[in-house]
Amino acid sequence: MRQIPGVEDLSELVCDALGAEHRVVAVDRLRGGSKKGVYRVRLDGARTESVIVYSWSEAENFWPSRQEEADPDGPFAPASGMVAFLTAQQALDRLGVRVPQVLLADGSRRRRTADLAVVEDIAGGTLEALFETDPERAAGALAGLAEMLEVMHRGRSVHYGRLDLLERGDRVSDVPCERRVLERALRDLDEAAERDGGIATAGAALRDRLRELAERVRPRTEYRLIHGELGPDHVLVDADGRPVLIDIEGLMYFDIEWEHVFLQLRFGKRYAALDRSGLDPRRLDLYMLAMRLSLVAGPLRLLEGDFPGRAFMRRIAQHNAKEALALLPSA
């Protein structure tokens, strides 16, 4: 049984962040977190009504371990932890990209067996929800997000990888970016084929297609700063209508096409506002099929544990299996 922290568990932490005059009156776990606990802490205080607490611990990570991704320095290793979060938060803040303000970070594990961070609560909700409830406000936030992405994507590096690992400076891969994507996609294909009959039947054709697409990609020696999993549910909107990026632990230098494939999938018809010229169509083709297979294997792997949103994850896997098969060339 996973233990959700209560008022007493988080009171000292929040008082250290905001001052003793703030009293915790309620703690709610927010939906969607699969690698960390995300809690809205409601306060009895005039200046601040609530804050968010992030809690990184194995007890709050719903992902089963995957032996094939044992490389902790790979670009697709699980992106989680306070160090990754703080590195990304500080880098984006320096660029002027809006992220939640960090009020306190505690890696001592004195209070709980977890690294903890208290951050501001952006109370305006997600861009995803705003698309339905206030399209005009959402359109303004989407335009702001396009500008924000342009700032991020101007960041360049001759090495690729997650930002906290690159800043550590001890491991740089010589394997081309597109080769890493291919290797991961082949692993995802094997995993998906074990759990999905349609993928299993088309396994040989999908494997051949991945290799064919990878062969078309020409080498590249410069990479851009990307979020990596940027959907409208990972964008909050603040009181001024500005977009605020969350779930930023995976911030990395990588092929910009990887970002844009994910944006296409998650923003759908609204992606046109985020599109840009100069993207490599060969990389887009390879990365689209790789991303589809990842979105089959990942959710099915998550369902092997006790992740609560089971029906939602199953729908994601089923939808992306269908879309992956549709990317095979017609006979």
Evaluate the radius of gyration.
Answer: 20 Å
**Separation of the first and last Cα atoms:** 50 Å
List low-pLDDT spans: none
Structural class: alpha+beta
How do the SSEs run, as a string of H and E? HEEEHEEHHEEHHHHEEEEHHH
- Bin the helical content: 40-55%
Number of helices: 11
Strand order within the widest beta sheet: 1-2-3-5-4
Number of strand elements: 11
- Tell me, rounded to a whole number, the average pLDDT: 89
CATH architecture of the domain at 127-326: Alpha-Beta Complex
Largest sheet: 5 strands, antiparallel
CATH C-level class of the domain at 127-326 is Alpha Beta
Fourth CATH level, the homologous superfamily of the domain at 127-326: Aminoglycoside phosphotransferase (APH), C-terminal lobe
Range of strand content:
15-25%
* Cα shape: globular
CATH fold description of the domain at 127-326 = Aminoglycoside 3'-phosphotransferase, Chain: A, domain 2
Provide a brief overview of the structure.
Helix content is 44%, strand content 15%.
Overview of the molecule:
The protein has a domain at 127-326: Aminoglycoside phosphotransferase (APH), C-terminal lobe (Aminoglycoside 3'-phosphotransferase, Chain: A, domain 2). The strands form 3 sheets. It has a 5-stranded antiparallel sheet, sandwiched between helices. Strands 6-8-11-7 form a 4-stranded antiparallel sheet. The chain has helices at residues 7-18, 82-95, 127-133, 135-153, 163-168, 177-195, 197-201, 203-216, 256-267, 281-302, 310-326; strands spanning 23-29, 37-44, 50-56, 102-106, 115-120, 156-157, 161-162, 223-226, 235-237, 243-245, 252-254. With 331 residues, the chain is α+β, with helices and mostly antiparallel strands. It starts with 6 loop residues before the first helix and ends in a 5-residue tail after the last helix.
